[in-house]
Amino acid sequence: MTLKEMLSQSCARYSGRPALSFVHGKPLSYRELGELTRRIGDMLRSLGLRPGTRVGILSGNMPHWPAAYYAVISEGAVVVPILPDFHPDEVHNILEHSGSEILFVSDKYREQTSPGNLPALRHMIRLEDLSLVYSRPADQPAVPAPVDERASFARSPEPLEEDLAAIIYTSGTTGRSKGVMLTHKNIVFDVMQCQTIHQVYPEDVFLSILPLSHTYENTLGLHLAIACGASVYYLEKPPTAAALLPALKKIRPTLMLSVPLVIEKIYRNQVLAKFTANRFMEAAYRFPPVRKLLHKLAGNKLYDTFGGRLKFFGIGGARLDPQAERFLKEGGFPYAIGYGLTETAPLIAGADAFKTRLQSTGPPMQGVQMKIEDPNPATGVGEILVKGENVMPGYYRDMALTRTVFTDDGWFRTGDLGCFDRDGYLYIKGRSKTMIVGASGENIYPEDIEALLNNIRGINESLVVQQKGKLVAMVHMNWEEFEANLRQMGQEARSYIQEKTGDAMALYHEKTDEWLEEIKQKVNQRLNKFSQIHKIKPVAEPFEKTPTQKIKRYLYGHKH
Fold first, then answer.
1. Does an H or E element contain 401, and which?
2. Domain 3-200+208-224 matches domain 226-437 at the CATH topology level
3. What is the reported pLDDT for 207?
4. Most buried by CB count within 10 Å: which residue of 8, 74, 273, 498?
């Protein structure tokens, strides 16, 4: 089955039911979604779209986002969803690497694109009203292509399930662009198998708070809902408490997907803060029977805050804090934790609400094979390998990288370490790759940040690690160069030292701090929000290295 066939069936079966809407907007029915998708497809063909054409989408969540996505894949073309948080340089690199010829872009992100610098990009379409806002001079359509009129262009051939549907970039930095190719079959298989974990019904209501360009929200929060005839609502503003609380009250969702950060903030700021407000409460909270009672009361209140009819609150993208999870479990909140990767479309393991086990992602999903390679005899921990119809065919335009992530007999290497309990529940124990998972589930590649740092004069080498949820850059500096700079300060330095009664070290430390702050700001200007450095720590000695001169990362706590 293809995504086009899945959409067609739902539009016919649930034609009058609401499909997509803003929280405070008028819903698009399934029939209207089908018609809008066809009209956008007509417009795209009038602009020269053909099977295989890559089409980017750069926007926050809105009902037109899925309509554009479905229009692209229904024509046999390939959609390239771009995370709105990406830096403009990354957006440029993704559009360039993918060879995207058409881009749907919302007003907020128009400035992140420079179509004149992208030779392949021929047209840009404003997502809010689907109007054509840019065409390369050589590709100006003879007749404008309005979305609200039927165009008389030959229909594209039906896409096949093996055809490429999407290329999803987990990083867009120069030299590290990594586009995950997902076929129709990959995504539809994942949608079908998700229903073996939790069945979704036409009466269900989703409130979407994660970006649609992330595979997690895309498959589980959009395609799964559409396949089952459910309704999806989008926030008009970013999901802050001020925007989220009224939306929860109005929509009263039955399903939601989230990252650990959301629930951890609620736990720390509301639950834990309240129950440890004074010494008496803190002492009582440490007593398990009291703690469970308090958690039950707080859990009931949280359930009401979320609208009072939540059946499934999915958490994924990063590891959930054990104390926050214990609160959810003891509070009777209907949470569930899943495990997956962009490369697996994404879900590969999960449990339904109330079938969870603390710190486990649940068992492998039906139809997915999973095994542990070279498990440690004492702990059972080893790298998690996966096989299934949801596993990508490879990385776009990178056969060398593709070969490194598959075994000779076709198993996909997740790069994660884990083990199973006796009932087959999976426990993730860490990452064997260097990738850092940000607080909201973003993929952060330390090598990208290190490359920027290492290019700065005065830094010999660097290592980016995560400490207490924040990115810290450890740098080995060229102190001779720094001291030469200090000497060049000449009279300013001498005056300062005299003023401070000869305290040369005070000047040294102050100027060091200023220099590090300057470096931090310079690097952060070139990084997206979630990859920015919190602190730079100088180290006295060069980093320990392997015989091939790679830094021994494990010695410096990069997995913390």
1. helix 399-404
2. yes
3. 98
4. 74
- Helices and strands: H and E segment counts in the chain: 18, 25
Q: Are 15 and 31 in contact (CB under 8 A)?
A: yes
C-beta neighbour count of 202 within 10 angstroms: 15
Q: Is the bond preceding 346 in cis, omega lying within 30 degrees of 0?
A: yes
pLDDT of res. 430 = 74
The CA distance from 46 to 41, in Å, is 9
Is the separation of the CB atoms in 215 and 345 below 8 Å? yes
pLDDT of res. 436: 82
Which position has the higher pLDDT, 547 or 421? 421
Angle at 470 between CA 552 and CA 361, to 5 degrees: 80
pLDDT tens-digit series, residues 430-483: 776 677 877 777 778 787 788 788 778 778 889 999 988 889 999 998 777 666
What does the alpha-carbon distance between residue 347 and residue 293 come to, in Å, rounded to a whole number? 34
Asked if residues 449 and 437 have their Cβ atoms less than 8 Å apart, the reply is no
Q: How many CA atoms lie within 13 A of 226 on its CB side?
A: 32
| E-strand stretches of 241-307 | 255-258
Nearest CA to 78 out of 117, 134, 120 is that of 120
User: Which range (10-24, 141-155, 159-173) has the least confidence?
Assistant: 141-155
> What's the pLDDT tens digit per position in 336-349?
999 999 999 999 99
Give the separation between CA 168 and CA 81, rounded to whole angstroms.
6
> Which helix (H) or strand (E) is 61 found in, with range?
none
Domain 445-556 CATH class label: alpha beta
Cβ–Cβ contacts within 10 Å for residue 114, how many? 12
Position 137 scores a pLDDT of 86
Q: What is the pLDDT of residue 376?
A: 87
Instruction: Classify 3-200+208-224 by CATH class.
Output: alpha beta
Calculate the alpha carbon distances from 163 to 77, 150, 187, 213 in Å: 9, 27, 11, 20
Coil/strand/helix, residue 453: helix
pTM of the model: 0.83
Domain ranges of the chain: 3-200+208-224, 226-437, 445-556
Q: What is the pLDDT of residues 360-392, one digit of tens each?
A: 999 999 999 999 999 988 889 899 999 999 999
Residues 6+ apart with CB under 8 A from 57: 65, 68, 69, 79, 80, 81, 82, 103, 104, 105, 127, 213
Q: What would the CATH number be for the domain defined by 226-437?
A: 3.40.50.12780
Do 165 and 187 form a contact (C-beta atoms < 8 A)?
A: yes
Burial class (CB in 10 A: 0-12, 13-18, 19+), 393: middle
